Amino acid sequence: MRKESFERSNFLHSSITKTLFHFSIWFLQFPNSVLMIYMVLGFMETDLHKIIYSKNPLSEEHIQYFIYQVLRGVKYIHSANVIHRDLKPSNLLLNQNCDLKICDLGLARGVDNSSNFELTEYVVTRWYRAPEIMCSCQDYDKRIDVWSIGCILGELLGRTPLFPGENYIDQLNLIFKYLGTPKAEDLTWVTNGKALAYIRDQSFIKGIRWKKIFPKASALSLDFLSQMLVFNPNKRISIEDALAHPFLKQLHNPQLEPTCPKTFDFAFEKSAHTDRGIRRLMYQEVMQWRNLRRR
């Protein structure tokens, strides 16, 4: 990652977490120092990627609790008009009590932001990318995060990546392998001509039943998975409906699933195109954090 991109990512993460103060989001602080600027984050013992690929058993209750916390945190993020854009197991931190915090908001963007962001190989992890991004559609929205959470759920159930594509084409082909080729009515949202032509040129694939892929998983967990991993984003379950799904019945509590009282303003993007601009914004951000601490 370029130095400018790294600095922009740090600034964006610090600025967004100041707005998104929530128990399922990793919180950033700047301790007072005269000569140096330190970015301090709360300690978390591990992350979900390490848990998935450990030898520790994972019960359905574990999976429910992990996914519930992710959905609860993402609901809060979305309510601030922010899309995370890089949800994956390694960006979900855990402590010994299985409390989960979402981290790495440095690649987030606004729901209503019309700026075109460069979606390179290192920006959004391919295995968790929604079809909208794979098809190079620039007008995607917060439903891309729902797809990523579905991929994470599948990885928890099988303890292996669900769509480990080696490139864009392979990624799409893996999606078709499991979900089947989409019907014409489910392609109306595809605005990229080349992507649309490629999909239409594919031979019919029926898809594979989730029960065959995850024979030990409960019917409720597979129904939940099938509603998140929908090729057509317009038919994909919303975060709010996902929280209310029967799979999470024992955990769902609207009083513990708040929304953000204010939205995040991405207007700073106009000044974040140079090293100097980003550093100036970062300095202003640190000063604002310290002023908040003094109140």
UniProtKB/TrEMBL annotation:
Key word Transferase present in the record? yes
Asked whether the keyword Ligase is assigned, the reply is no
Q: Where is the Protein kinase domain?
A: 1-248
Q: Which GO terms describe its molecular function?
A: ATP binding; protein serine/threonine kinase activity
Which Pfam families does this one have? Pkinase
- Family annotation (PROSITE patterns): PROTEIN_KINASE_DOM (PS50011), PROTEIN_KINASE_ST (PS00108)
What CDD domains does the record tag this protein with? STKc_MAPK
Keywords on record: ATP-binding, Kinase, Membrane, Nucleotide-binding, Serine/threonine-protein kinase, Transferase, Transmembrane, Transmembrane helix
TM stretches of this protein: 20-44
From which domain of life does this come? Answer: Eukaryota
> What name appears for this protein in its UniProt entry?
Sporangia induced mitogenactivated protein kinase pu
Q: Give the source species.
A: Hirondellea gigas
